[in-house]
């Protein structure tokens, strides 16, 4: 573990992101390596509980780098969920491995709702198809955009 | 370490006492291995999605670290029977076609 963290730190400095390492308070909510402990249980525990909807992706919501990560982004967009935390595992090898260990789940993307691991793209897709996602979002106080779209459809 | 669609299929059939397993090798040429699986087993009865998928993950625990991309669909025998009757029943392995459909009421 210390080997890959060392490389990550060296890479950060090389990219001129030394500021992030020195001032953790400035750590952005999404994207960017989190620092020397970015793969630790405590750090990840904090990340998944900080926001209601948290996703770990390959790439960013604006530019997903993988079809499955893109599917997660599209499903959230369909439901009108725009306020979520997205972490790009491609930017941080320690995060990439750490989140797999944390959830005991072998692949990215990973979706967390209310601090709880929900699953990957397959599960999110099935939840979207069978209506469970609308229900889970409702429990978090998020009204799915599809409910309004359906209302419009019914009223026509 | 055997990583063929057939070897995965046999392992899933055996260890999950599955009624039906389909494994599709989705590896693009010259890239790391990717698979898409469908498993139909009564072991999934009463279990939420995440638990079902974890069962499959444990079954393939030795193989997964060597697999680059992995998709899975887990159904009970009853769900599988219903699924086959749907118009797109044969296309269960192409979820990307179904994104964008509104959930049924």
From TrEMBL, chain A:
Monothiol glutaredoxin involved in mitochondrial iron-sulfur (Fe/S) cluster transfer. Receives 2Fe/2S clusters from scaffold protein ISCU and mediates their transfer to apoproteins, to the 4Fe/FS cluster biosynthesis machinery, or export from mitochondrion. Required for normal regulation of hemoglobin synthesis by the iron-sulfur protein ACO1. One of its GO terms (cellular component) is iron-sulfur cluster assembly complex. PROSITE patterns: GLUTAREDOXIN_2. Residues 24-44 are annotated as: Disordered. This is Glutaredoxin-related protein 5, mitochondrial. The keyword Iron applies. The gene is GLRX5. One of its GO terms (biological process) is [2Fe-2S] cluster assembly. Keywords: 2Fe-2S, Iron, Iron-sulfur, Metal-binding, Redox-active center. It comes from the Eukaryota. Homodimer. Interacts with ISCU. Interacts with BOLA1. Residues 53-118 form the Glutaredoxin domain. GO terms for molecular function: 2 iron, 2 sulfur cluster binding; metal ion binding. The keyword Iron-sulfur applies.
């Amino acid at each position: 573990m210390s080997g890959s963290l060392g490389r990550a730190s060296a890479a950060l400095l090389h990219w001129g992101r030394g500021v992030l390492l020195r001032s953790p308070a400035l750590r952005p909510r999404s994207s960017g390596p989190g620092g020397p402990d970015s793969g630790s249980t405590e750090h990840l525990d904090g990340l998944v509980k900080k926001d209601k909807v948290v996703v770990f992706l390959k790439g960013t919501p604006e530019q997903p780098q993988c079809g499955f990560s893109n599917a997660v982004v599209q499903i959230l967009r369909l439901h009108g969920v725009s306020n979520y935390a997205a972490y790009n595992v491609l930017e941080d090898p320690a995060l990439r491995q750490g989140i797999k260990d944390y959830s005991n789940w072998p692949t990215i993307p990973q979706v967390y709702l209310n601090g709880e691991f929900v699953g990957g793209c397959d599960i999110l897709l099935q939840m979207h198809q069978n209506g469970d996602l609308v229900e889970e979002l409702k429990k978090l106080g998020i009204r799915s955009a599809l409910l309004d779209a359906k209302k419009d459809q019914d009223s026509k | 370490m055997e990583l063929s669609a057939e070897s995965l299929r046999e392992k899933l059939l055996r260890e999950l006492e599955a009624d039906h397993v389909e494994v599709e090798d989705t590896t693009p040429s010259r890239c790391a291995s990717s698979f898409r699986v469908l498993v139909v087993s009564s072991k999934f009865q009463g279990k939420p999605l995440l638990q079902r998928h974890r069962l499959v993950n444990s079954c393939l625990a030795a193989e997964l670290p060597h697999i680059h991309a992995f998709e899975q669909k887990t159904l009970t025998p009853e769900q599988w029977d219903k699924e086959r009757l749907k118009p797109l029943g044969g296309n269960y392995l192409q979820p990307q076609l179904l994104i964008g459909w509104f959930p049924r009421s």
